[in-house]
Every structure is written in structure tokens, then in C-alpha cells.
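Lecture notes, unit on binding sites. The following record was shown on slide 14. It pairs a sequence with coenzyme A.
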Amino acid sequence: MTDQSPSHEMLTSPHSVGNKIARLIWGVVYVLLFRYSPRSFHVWRNFLLRLFGAKIHGTSRIYPKAKIWFPGNLVMGPHACLGEGADCYNVATVTIGEWATVSQYAYLCGATHDHEDVAFPLIPKPITIGKRAWIAADVFVGPGVTVGDGTVVGARSSVFKDLPAWQICMGTPARPVKSRGLGPADFNMPDAGKEG
Ligand SMILES: CC(C)(COP(=O)(O)OP(=O)(O)OC[C@H]1O[C@@H](n2cnc3c(N)ncnc32)[C@H](O)[C@@H]1OP(=O)(O)O)[C@@H](O)C(=O)NCCC(=O)NCCS
């Protein structure tokens, strides 16, 4: 018996066969070789992620209990960090800039659904975390969001819109509450990203 209701398309996966196979193999590799690797084995985990298409600098740190939906959509700069329990649902590209930190249990949510369409299609949108930004513990970062360079997002905040550079932001929805005392000059960065 087939489901012919207007919403039967909801049962159809938007992902290609190749994507599904890659994620299936990645899931096995993740459980067997990644998740229980010693914490200090960053080079090893970077190697595994690169095998599946991630673009990760050699100095990036991805902790073993971090979850990555699809390594091929992960880009991390020098010294960028993805902490324990952070969940990277990167249906679209997630970029974590150099020296940026994504702390424990943060959720980078790279897709939403069109809730006005009976087929409820998945809509992937990229996420960009700027250089030197800090996404604190348990923060939700929504699809399509860019967090500016140097910006701090306080613990348990939820980010639904872009945040400017070099701000301290918090709350749900997250908003800038003050400028960060530090700026690009403190890190020998070009001035371009300084705001506020
Ligand atoms: C965002 C953060 C860095 C702010 O630090 P800060 O600039 O020193 O700010 P303060 O602690 O002085 O707090 C300022 C105000 O914001 C509030 N506040 C602080 N963090 C908040 C948060 N995450 N969400 C909502 N409000 C917050 C404080 O209660 C205080 O309110 P008040 O003005 O009414 O008293 C810090 O609170 C935070 O969230 N740290 C993250 C900790 C973490 O995730 N650790 C894990 C990795 S080690």
C-alpha cells in the first residue's frame, strides 16, 4: 500500500545516493576509529575527516566526542576547535575560522525545513564562525548564520541571525550586549572586521 497523502513527499530523502553511502561509511569509521580515540590524537582525527573530504588545517582540534554529520562539508582554519559533544549538522558547509572555538555541546544546525510547503523540504544553509570567535557551551547556531570575527556568544544562547564582529552576545535570540575589549589589533589581524 502506498501513501498518497499530500505530504508523502516528506518520506523522500533529499540526499544523493553517494552522500548516503559516504555518510554510512563515515558513521562506521566514526564509531570504530574516531569517537573513542585518545583526546590528544587530533592529527589522527583530522586525517580521518580529510579522508571523507573535510578541509581542515593541520593544527585544528576536533575532540573525539564531537559529531560531524558530513565531513565533506566541514572547513576549519588553523587552531580552530570543535569541542567535546559539539554537534555539527553540516548539511551545508560549516566554516570555523582560524583560532575560533566551538565549545562543548554547541549545536551548529545547518538546515531548516520549508514549513509552508506540504512536502516539508529540507533547506540546507551554510554557517560561518569568524576568526577568533568563541561559541560557548550549549549554544545553538541556526542555518545561514554568520558569527563575526572575534565575537563571543555566551553559554546557552541561540543565534538565528548574523552577529557583528568583536561583540559579546547572549540570550535567545542572541544579541550584542557590549563590545569585546579585545580587537583585531590585539591579534595582529587586519582591521577590516572591527565593528562596534
Ligand atoms: C558570555 C560570557 C563570556 C560573559 O562574560 P562577561 O563578559 O564576563 O559577562 P558577565 O559575567 O559580567 O555578565 C554580564 C551580564 O550578562 C549575563 N550573562 C552572562 N552570560 C550570559 C549568558 N550566557 N546568557 C545570558 N546572560 C548572560 C550576566 O548574568 C550578567 O547579567 P547582569 O548584567 O544582569 O548582572 C559568559 O557569561 C559565558 O557565557 N561564558 C561561557 C562559559 C562556557 O561556555 N564555558 C565552556 C567552555 S570553557
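Take-home: The longest strand covers residues 175-179.
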